[in-house]
Structure formats: structure tokens, C-alpha cells
Design brief:
Length: 358
């Protein structure tokens, strides 16, 4: 089957329209016509998709008409994918590459906070199924055969569903200290450069609450060095900028070593570059996998072990120390305060302790 550039349109919306069209054509081709009651309408819908719709609304109408014709399968996917597309467009992404696990998690947990557990599961499955399709049929360079892969694994949706607010998992201070001790000693394969690259990247995530893709795409010029630490300008969703800081005691030794011996090899203008190919960005999946390896070695077992656990741990620790929800919102780059409210679970735990007072 033919492959196409990931960002095939002039805008992210145009690229989404292209991939949604291809995705639904593929879906329909795998379904039997057993339930089709109106063969004429069914064929008209197939022809309309093949004619390349120009808007998301056109695709929506075609899939609804397909349902009227008697083919229900595609209609299961259209609503969640349209809502997902609108969230992407609202975020002003410049590339589909900006869709990562954090974004999908935030979309399901925050944007869809009023949905039932069953609906959220269906939405998650639809989104991941679509992204897997795009991963299989895009390519970075014409005829290269190598495409961008969306490595998104969401085991649990943290957020509001039904009438329950789900508490994000996090590491305690003791677990964070254990994690850091193991990180300093852990060997990431046989490549010597990988040891220091992953140590620096992972510590930046843990001590700033940054998303994995924000660290992977961090430009060297966005770091300011001060006497007691460094200040970093991050670009989050929708290219929204925010500033975070990290003390020298938590990063200086590793960062100095990295900047002296490894960073000069990078040719991409970023703080980090590929371990083997210094012209490309550091792979976000490699960072996530490195985090999972350290957590596993440290025997820190949570339902969702990964880089997002570090972000939750950072946010929880900051809120615990400051009780300043607005500060946590700014540090994490949350546009909506509802997303940040999940970290008030600390106060909820204090409230529960009052049960023992009587």
C-alpha cells in the first residue's frame, strides 16, 4: 500500500483531513456489506470518500450517510476523531509530530472529563487505532519506507469520569530519591554517550515537570545559566512558552559533562540530538523507555510507569510544598485550571485523616 508524508497538507488541519479520509477508506474496505440496506447510498459514500473531502464536516456527513446506508462500523470512530481533531487544531500544532502521549492523555482526562468510563475507553481506542494507522502508512522522506511512529500507550485514563475524580499516580519523596540513585548508576546499553544523555534528559523532566517532547525539542539557546542554577524556556502545546528553573545541585555535574563532551556533536540546534545520528532530534520513545527501565530497576511499580509519572511526581511535590495551585498550573503549562486540580489529591488525603479523629 502506498505511503505518504506525515504532514502532507499545508496545515495540520489539511493533513488530518487527508489521513482521516485514508483511514475511513481503509476501515470500510475491511468491513462486510452484510448490514447494508441501501446499496446505492453506500456506493455514493465510498465514491465521496475517494473524491477526497476538503473539510472535516464533509467526512462527518459521509460517515453519517454510511450509517444510514446500514454500515455502522465507521460511525463508532467519527465522533471521537472529530473532537480529537478540533483539540489538535485549537492547540495550533505545526506538525502532527506534536501529538504525543501527554497530549492524548490530557485530551481524554481534561477535555473529555464529563464522559463515562466506557465512552472514554472507546475514545481512547479510536484515537490509538487511528494513530497506529498513520504510523503504518506515513514516511519521512519520499520512497524511504521509514515513517514517524506514534508510540502512545495509555493504560489508564487519569481524570474525571462519571462521578469519580481519579488521582494521578506519583512517586513519594523517598521513591524519587531511590529513582535518582538508580538513575546515576544505571547503564543504558553499551553506548557510553547514552548514559549521560539519558541521565540529563530524565533529570530535566523530573526536576521541571516538562513533557518528554518538550525536552527532546529543547533548543540550546533557550537555556540560561545563572550562579545557583539554570532557567529554561519551554515551548508547550500550541507553542505556548513558559519558564522553569532547576538548581545546580540537581543537574550541574551531569549537564557540564554532557555539554563538554557530547553536545558539541549535535548538528540540529537542539540541546539534545540522536544518540547515533547527531543531525536529528533525540527520540521521545527512547527517553520514555529509559525512564521505564530505571523505574523497573528501582522496583518502583505503578499502574502507569513512564515519563508522565515523573511529571505527576514533580507537580505533586511542588503543590505539597507550596499549596499554590496556580503556580503548578504555570509550571506544567496547563491552559485550563481544571487539568491542574487533580493535584489537590494531597488535600483530599489530609481530609481523609480526619476520620481517625473521632
Amino acid at each position: 500500500m502506498a505511503k505518504f508524508p506525515l504532514d502532507i497538507g499545508d496545515t495540520v488541519e489539511e493533513s488530518l483531513i487527508f489521513w482521516y479520509t485514508r483511514y475511513f477508506i481503509s476501515k470500510i474496505s475491511t468491513l462486510t456489506k452484510e448490514g447494508v440496506k441501501n446499496g446505492t447510498l453506500y456506493e455514493e459514500c465510498k465514491d465521496a470518500l475517494a473524491a477526497s473531502p476538503r473539510t472535516l464536516e464533509e467526512i462527518h456527513k459521509i460517515i453519517n450517510d454510511m450509517k444510514r446506508a446500514g454500515l455502522n462500523g465507521p460511525s463508532v470512530y467519527i465522533k471521537p476523531l472529530l473532537l480529537f481533531a478540533r483539540a489538535i487544531i485549537k492547540s495550533r500544532f505545526e506538525s502532527l509530530r506534536e501529538i504525543d502521549e501527554d497530549f492524548v492523555q490530557s485530551f481524554l482526562s481534561s477535555d473529555m472529563y464529563d464522559k463515562s468510563d466506557a465512552t472514554l475507553t472507546n475514545y481512547k481506542n479510536a484515537i490509538i487505532n487511528f494513530l497506529n494507522y498513520v504510523s503504518a502508512y506515513n514516511e519521512n522522506e519520499p520512497n524511504s519506507g521509514n515513517g514517524y511512529v506514534f508510540s502512545i500507550k495509555i493504560k489508564k485514563i487519569n481524570g474525571v469520569s462519571n462521578n469519580t475524580k481519579k488521582i494521578p499516580e506519583f512517586m513519594t519523596k523517598k521513591e524519587m530519591d531511590k529513582f535518582l540513585k538508580v538513575l546515576d548508576e544505571y547503564e543504558f546499553g553499551r553506548n557510553a554517550d547514552a548514559q549521560i544523555v539519558f541521565r540529563v534528559a530524565i533529570k530535566l523532566i523530573l526536576f521541571t515537570g516538562a513533557r518528554v517532547n518538550e525536552i527532546a525539542s529543547l533548543n540550546y539557546k533557550d537555556i540560561s545559566f545563572e550562579d545557583d542554577g539554570i532557567v529554561i524556556k519551554l515551548k508547550g502545546k500550541g507553542k505556548k512558552e513558559r519558564v522553569v528553573a532547576i538548581a545546580n545541585r540537581n543537574i550541574k555535574t551531569d549537564l557540564d559533562l554532557y555539554l563538554k563532551y557530547i553536545h558539541p556533536l549535535c548538528e540540529n540546534g537542539r540541546l539534545f540530538c540522536g544518540i547515533m545520528n547527531h543531525k536529528i532530534d533525540l527520540n521521545t520513545r527512547q527517553i520514555s523507555k529509559a525512564v521505564e527501565q530505571v523505574l523497573d530497576h528501582a522496583k518502583i511499580n505503578k499502574q502507569k510507569n513512564g515519563a508522565h509519572l515523573l511529571r505527576h511526581s514533580y507537580a505533586t511535590f511542588v503543590y505539597n510544598q507550596t499549596r499554590d495551585l496556580r503556580l503548578v498550573q504555570e509550571l506544567l503549562g496547563h491552559a485550563d485550571s481544571k487539568t491542574t486540580q487533580i493535584y489537590t489529591h494531597i488535600d483530599n488525603e489530609r481530609i481523609k485523616k480526619t476520620r481517625d479523629l473521632f
